[in-house]
Amino acid sequence: MMMIDMEYNNTARAILRKIRVSPEKLNIVAAMIRGMRTDRAIGALTHCKRRIAVEVRKTLQSAIANAENNHGLDIDNLYVKEAYVGHSLTLKRFHPRGRGRGGRVRKPFSHLSIIVEQRG
Q1: SS3 per-residue string spanning 38-87
Q2: What is the pLDDT of residues 38-58, one digit of tens each?
Q3: Are strands 102-118 and 78-96 parallel, antiparallel or unpaired?
Q4: Cβ(17)–Cβ(88) under 8 Å?
Q5: CATH superfamily entry for domain 11-118
Q6: Could you tell me the pTM of the whole model?
Q7: Rounded to an integer, what distance in angstroms lies between the CA atom of residue 107 and that of residue 101?
Q8: How many alpha carbons lie under 13 Å from residue 11 in its C-beta half-sphere?
Q9: What percent helix, strand, coil does the chain show, rounded to 5?
């Protein structure tokens, strides 16, 4: 017999992988929307000046669409339950410096996971 966890029946998620931004910068935008209603979070991300806010908004809209289409949740009662960031790969490059030396340049990538929950 399969047990169904009642906590996860009212949640939906969307994951965006290998985003070309550092996890620290992405986490600033993700922390901004944690715990917010989804309609207010989309409004905040629309007016955010950071470049990565566009990708976070698209991922949030995907989570809302997953909640509506795959889980049958009411989109008017959705909140951002979790928005967390993980570290992905790092490209390592060299930049020429003075006297024949090379400076290391790290180009980090990130993962973003957004989980929305129906309350009420």
Answers
A1: HHHHHHHHHCCCCCCHHHHHHHHHHHHHHHHHCCCCCHHHEEEEEEEEEE
A2: 999 999 999 999 999 999 999
A3: antiparallel
A4: yes
A5: Ribosomal protein L22/L17 (3.90.470.10)
A6: 0.90
A7: 19
A8: 14
A9: 40, 40, 20
Band the pLDDT of 120: cuts 50, 70, 90.
confident
Q: Which of 41, 23, 108 is nearest to 80 (CA)?
A: 41
Q: What does the domain layout of the chain look like in residue ranges? A: 11-118
N- to C-terminal Cα distance for the chain?
29
The torsion defined by the Cα of 60, 65, 71 and 76, in degrees rounded to 10, comes to: 80
Q: How many residues does the chain have?
A: 120
